[in-house]
């Protein structure tokens, strides 16, 4: 105990550095429902996941995941039910970087899509993993 009191600064530095090492793990755990590019491929191939691209139509036309359906974020609440009728299927939401898709996941969950997930890093991560894109 005397050591801890005499060296309180070293103890504080050790605790702070430990906290900084754990932060990424805790932050990623808080983003439940996010997939890596390879995880998305597995979900599409094995679980028949439906991919919904929430970018605008002009962005979607420049390149998108194969078989993806385009429902812009602003129209998601009105149109998602018509595009993906089976709410029990896994749903993968995609945008350019993942920011819009995270907002879209909240909307999808509210609409009853319990298995909605986000492609972490968005289309950027998909391209970095050297996975194919379709153009329309």
**SSE string:** HHEHEHEHEHEH
Rg over CA atoms, rounded to whole Å, is 20 Å
Number of helices: 7
Structural class by helix and strand composition: alpha/beta
Name the average pLDDT.
90
Give the N-to-C terminal Cα separation. 68 Å
Strand percentage lies at: 5-15%
Q: In which range does the helix fraction lie?
A: 40-55%
Largest sheet: 5 strands, parallel
Strand order across the largest sheet: 1-5-4-2-3
The total of beta strands comes to 5
Shape label: elongated
Regions with little confidence, pLDDT below 50 for 5+ residues: none
Characterize this entry briefly:
The chain has seven helices and five strands, in the order ααβαβαβαβαβα. It is of the alpha/beta class and 136 residues long.
Keywords for this entry:
single chain, 5 strands, elongated, 53% helix, five-stranded parallel sheet, alpha/beta, 136 residues, 7 helices
